[in-house]
Design goal:
The chain is α+β, with helices and mostly antiparallel strands. It has one domain (about 5-125). It is about 40% helix and about 15% strand. The chain is built from four helices and four strands. It has helices at about 10-25, 40-45, 65-75, 95-110, and strands at about 5, 30-35, 55-60, 65. Strand 3 and strand 4 (about 65) form a beta hairpin. It is globular, with a radius of gyration of 14 Å. It starts with a strand and ends in an 18-residue tail after the last helix. This is Putative DCC family thiol-disulfide oxidoreductase YuxK.
Length: about 130
């Protein structure tokens, strides 16, 4: 069983987050696709994900997680103490998502944008759709 992480392929913070996940997911539970890619667009359409949703998205089976729920779903499946962050799920979703939206809204200003896509190394290339 795997889950797909849809991420903003232009965002430095999002790219760093993908690299972070890969390092802590040696079993390859997560696969990745940029929201702007052809497969990203197909998955958004298939799962009726609105274009204006400005969030990391996780798709597991036919369940879609976005915003703080997606981030917490990811931490729950990482190796090490990162699983402990799942306790944040106890905080009301509206509050979690408010913090998430501040980061999402400012991610380009704070972390910058990519001018080009980085080609994954051969050892992880199969994890990108």
């Amino acid at each position: 069983m795997t889950a797909i992480v849809l991420f903003d392929g232009e965002c430095n913070f999002c790219d760093s987050s993908v690299q972070f996940i890969i390092k802590r997911d040696p079993d390859g539970f997560f696969q990745f696709a940029a929201l702007q890619s052809e497969i990203g667009e197909e998955l958004k359409k298939k799962h009726q994900i609105p274009d204006q949703l400005d969030s990391i998205i996780v798709i597991e089976n036919n369940t879609v997680y976005d915003s703080s729920d997606a981030a917490l779903f990811i931490t729950k499946h990482l190796n090490g103490l990162w699983k402990c962050f799942y306790i944040v799920k106890l905080i009301p979703k509206s509050l979690r998502n408010s913090v998430y939206k501040i980061i999402a809204k400012n991610r380009y200003n704070w972390f910058g944008k990519k001018d080009f896509c980085v080609i994954p190394s051969p050892d992880i290339r199969n994890r990108f759709l």
